[in-house]
Amino acid sequence: MEVVLASSSLDGGIGCWDLHTGAEQLRYKSCSSPSHGLVAVGPRFIASSQLREPSATSGSVLFWSWSKPQVEVKSFPAEPIKPLASNHLGTFIAGGALSGDIYLWEVETGRLLKKWRAHIRAVTCLVFSEDDSLLVSGAEDGTVRVWSLFMIFDDFRGQQANNLYEYSFTGHSLHVTDVVIGNGGCSAIIVSASEDRTCKVWSLSRGTLLRNIVFPSVIDSIALDPAEHVFYAGSRDGKIFIAALNTESDASNNHGMHIIGSFSNQSKTVTCLAYSTSQNLLISGSEDGKVRVWDARTRRIVRLFKHAKGPVNNILVVRRENSSNHISSNVQPSSRKQGNLPPPLEKYANSIHEDSDMNTTISLGGGRSSLNPSYLSSHVISNYIKELQHQGSAAASEMETEKLKHDYQRAMQMANQWKNMYENLNKFCVNELLDGSQARTLDENHN
Amino acid sequence: MAAFVHFGNMHDVAFKPRLLQSLIRDHLPDENGPFSEPSKLSKAVALVKKHSLLSESFLADSTPPKVIEAWKSAFSSWLNRIFSLLSTSMPDKCWAGISLLGVTCEECSSERFLESYSAWFHKLLAFLQSPADSHLVRVAACASLSDLLKRLSGYPKIRKESSSCAGKVVQPTLKMLTDENSEAIWDAAVHLLCTVATSFPFSIRSHYDGVESAIALKLLSGGCSLDMSQKLAHCLALLPKSKGDNESWSVTMQKILVLINDQLNLAFHGLEEETMRDGVARLLVSPGKHPPPPLGGYILAEEVRNKASQMTEQALMSNVSTLMSVCCLMLKNSYPVKVNVPVRLLLALVERVLMVDGSLPQMSMPFVTAKQQENICSELPALHLSSLELLTAIIKSLGSQLLPHAAYIVRIVTKYFKTCELPELRIKVYSVTKNLLITMGVGMALYLAQEVINNAFTDLSSIEHTNGDILNGSNSNDSAGATQPSSHRKRKHSNATGSLQEQDQGGGLGLEVPKNRPSTPISLRIAALETLESLITVAGALKSEAWRSKLDSLLISIATDSFKDGTVGEELSVLQLKEPAATATDLQLAALRTLLASFLSCARGRPPYLSEGLELFRRGKQQTSVTKVAEFCALALLALEVLIHPRGLPLVDYTYEDNNSLGEVHSNLQHEYFGRSNSTPYGLPQVPPDYDENLCAEWLENGNGADVSRDKDTKNNQEPSEACRDNDPEVLPVHVSSDTNIQERAQMDSEAATSADVEMKTVGDETNFTMNIPTEAHNDIVSEKILSDSTVPHNEGSHMESDHGNSVNKDLEFASQSNSLWQTTSGSNIFQEFAFKVDGDNSLADEDDFPDIVDGDPDSDSE
């Protein structure tokens, strides 16, 4: 089941709809998220950063399990967090703070693993690369930076190097509003949008700008076509532009260079976009509180979800294994196990738990490598018979015969020796007897 | 009577009871007669399995009841024979009966099994418990019971009954394990225990300590064969499952680690630095916590400790190896709940072992005899191997969660790589590296690239010296070694090409290959190639400038070499009785795979050795006698075909209706053409001009040998324009499209006029989107372009001008539209940064209008 999640900056909860049937699922309560502040942490739960007032000096991060509408875990980081991101397995959560720092927590224990100075001004968006080893961040200072998490964790090299980041792209002159990263490992592209009305395409492998696309209006959100031929850009004038990446573009249309076309929902600002790969659907959220589902081919609205009165500012498309209703009714024990949410995220890097620094909690046997015992009896039979045959084989018996022959000869020799000795003795005795009797007869004759 | 009652064919059901009956009659021993030919028995078992004679499976409606009845009766006579064998007093017949019952448990139908398993179980259990029987009988009883329990575990409905059965088995098995003194019996008993532990883990729980101490005793007292100790290790690793909670897993793990540490302390006495030992000890027992009870209980531990002081270093170290494999198995096996893995401690132990190389520190010289040192060094490779194995297990089980420890692992691996010389160990280090690269992705590759490259070059250099000129050439202008601080490498043969710095310092004196150096074994070369392959796969294009060109030339030379001596290895392997671990074919395959990966990962236009590579793959495809290579080469050609004829297939059709008016032929051609000229996405910048040129030549099949020379010419001439290209992607479409068109024109002159027309249109379209630039500048480019390209026919100039006129017209059209102002400004902005001198006034004026764009300056994008 593929579901759409939508949240708003005003408290309207998190709306959840089945993308295929259009049926509304649970509505997760009390959520007012900033832009990019909603994330599905692996298959386990939903997390969202909270920022009630823009000027607040503290914020929170809330967790909802999939099966319950109420907030289950509340964490209070040291400073307000706006964008959140999680790696694909859901083992780490990264948060970008207003001060420009990035926080990295371990989900299982809630430990704050690292916190580093990433940008001069507030971080606006965060995204993990396809293989989870890189983190891309965009900020209000107009920079987009690529971080290798290894470098972040390697204190030794971090001190040696001038910069922690791998790349720092400084093309935008105003706030970066959205960043996406494509597929292709090290040859991936990064597309960033900014309030300076441009979108820029960066090459990860070369670290350079590949394309600069100027739009008639500010772009707030980007969604990549899964084959990366185009990307969709949602603008503040209510249009969704299609910009060319790897396809022919024709400047004879009236949009501008590299812009293939646009379609509009006749409404206010398009605030967020998401793409559902299974059906080629583009989902847009708008300032009027509605979520529109477009067929990417025909560019027509297929579905319309009404979320809230306030502007929708986050949309996620999440693939769920089971429907949440089924979990709660049928598989009670397992859902409780799954529903066990991790502890809240820690405020500070805690040096008291040295112990936990050395241990890592993991679930074993994801690869199902557990050996199944095999049936044995027939092996025992064939082994034993092989052994028997081995003992009874020609070579072995020949050896045995030779050995027996040798023994026999030695025994024969021994027997002969004994025989000789016996004969000698016998002769001796007989002679003695004969001599004795002769003497006696002589004596008798004498007498 | 039934001599002529024939059946249909070998699939006929009627055939099966018949065969079963005759097997019972002819092949099974009889309770009265002598058991003369045991080999007949295995024949019978093989036939029973092959034809599934005991399965009693038939289609209920289409099978005549007579046949069903016959099979039923045959089965009962089979059972009867087994029971009569069981009741004899002759051990060999008894053995046969027990084993056959085990086979029956495996083969019979579910109904039969469920009906009679409990009777069979009790019969078998009796044999297990009676100590009078011969070893043979008890081994067979263990095996058959294990089969029965395995079959039982497949029926979750009778879970309760079956676990009680399993529970009854444990006690007598343990007794056998402790009382008997034959390895065959231990083996069977351990197998039975493992079956119980996997299938019915909870039935072991009440005997947990007993099992643990029995196995620990066997493991630690030494004297088991290697095979046996592996089985014991497996069983010990399964034990925590019987409790199934996080706590017992952790405790078992900690017990084992404490034991490993103790034994290492004894074995490595005087061989290592105290700091290492203390570091591990600190991690092992955290302050304020009690250490867990020793493995197998206190009494056993005392015994073991007394023994250990008399044990040789060899025995101690082989114990450590076995215990490490227990850790591996515990990490690999599945476990019902999440566990706390002491990663840091495990890594510290691995490091501790790997850092001991048998050398003595000065101060402990008087305390260690040469004999002791000899003992230790003889066992060290095995110990290193098992700790590398443990490292692999850690990497695999932790996956992405390894992140906080990744730097530590990388340091261990790189440190060890420098000292490690034995081929077997190096292969293992390569496989650890490969795992790291694949599991951790791009970030890890950035870390490890230099290390992998250095080591792989060292190991592959023995082949390389035949064409060392390539390498010398590339080494001299290479500065990759600068990032690698280790110019003082310990390895003797690293001076070949391993350390680039040394090479550079030597001023490229050529390769010195020490005379007495043993040639690198094939398996090691394969491991090196495979690691290179995964490095290229993961990060072939990311920050790879330093090593990429060198690597490409190495790979093509290895692949070429593999075709020269490929056949010799084949013949040898036929002659040898046992197939060798790695043949020349495997090496060839590894070389070709790596080559393909290097071609596919080339982000910067055309791979330098593409044509040679294609030739090799074509040759390999024809080697149909070596199936593996031919198969792979076919796949490689398929994969490279996209590189030759690139195409983009969008998921969704993005073109608008008005585009289609140009006609299908045109749009097709345009599409294709467009796709070809940017083989990498948005990649006009990446495509060096000679790439296009060659492609066109191949495409039109005109360039027979002429294009090679042209290649060289243009390479020299086009350096500057290439530099510009890199700087400014915006302008590039102009370059490339005009450039290609020029070439295309040159080729096309002899072609039909119609196709040239189509090309013309393409030119118009291509230039359109970038032609919104001042006229002067454009003329500059075009003229310079033409001047630099000596092979371009003269009529190009006029042609280009006509194109240009076209685009100027369009420009005017644009000017009337509001949007086009944007483009004009951006275009001119970029042109200003471009190397060409353009009057500044024009663009300055524009900047005033749109200050935003000044910052969007693509030149200062990366730092």
Automatic annotation (TrEMBL), chain A:
Bias-annotated ranges (Polar residues): 324-338
Keyword flag Repeat: yes
Presence of keyword Repeat: yes
GO BP, sorted A to Z: DNA-templated DNA replication; negative regulation of shoot apical meristem development; rRNA processing
WD repeats: 116-149, 169-212, 263-304
Pfam families: WD40
GO cellular component terms given for this protein: nuclear pre-replicative complex; rixosome complex
InterPro entries in alphabetical order: WD40/YVTN_repeat-like_dom_sf, WD40_PAC1, WD40_repeat_CS, WD40_repeat_dom_sf, WD40_rpt, WDR18/Ipi3/RID3
Region (Disordered): 324-343
Domain of life: Eukaryota
Keywords: Repeat, WD repeat
Protein name: Pre-rRNA-processing protein IPI3
The species this protein was found in: Vigna unguiculata (Cowpea)
Taxonomic lineage from the root: Eukaryota, Viridiplantae, Streptophyta, Embryophyta, Tracheophyta
Automatic annotation (TrEMBL), chain B:
Domain Pre-rRNA-processing protein RIX1 N-terminal: start-end pairs: 23-221
Domain of life per record: Eukaryota
Regions of compositional bias (Polar residues) in chain numbering: 472-486
Subcellular location(s) of the protein: Nucleus
Biased composition annotated in UniProt, kind: Acidic residues: 844-863
Positions of region (Disordered): 471-516, 703-732, 841-863
Biological process according to GO: rRNA processing
Keywords from the named record: Nucleus
Pfam families reported for this sequence: RIX1 (PF08167)
Keyword Nucleus applies: yes
InterPro entries attached to this UniProt entry: ARM-like, ARM-type_fold, RIX1_N
A single cellular component GO annotation: nucleus
Matching SUPFAM superfamilies: ARM repeat
Nucleus keyword on record: yes
Chain intervals with Basic and acidic residues compositional bias: 708-728
Similarity field: Belongs to the RIX1/PELP1 family.
Identification of the protein by name: Armadillo-type fold
Source organism: Vigna unguiculata
Classification lineage: Eukaryota, Viridiplantae, Streptophyta, Embryophyta, Tracheophyta
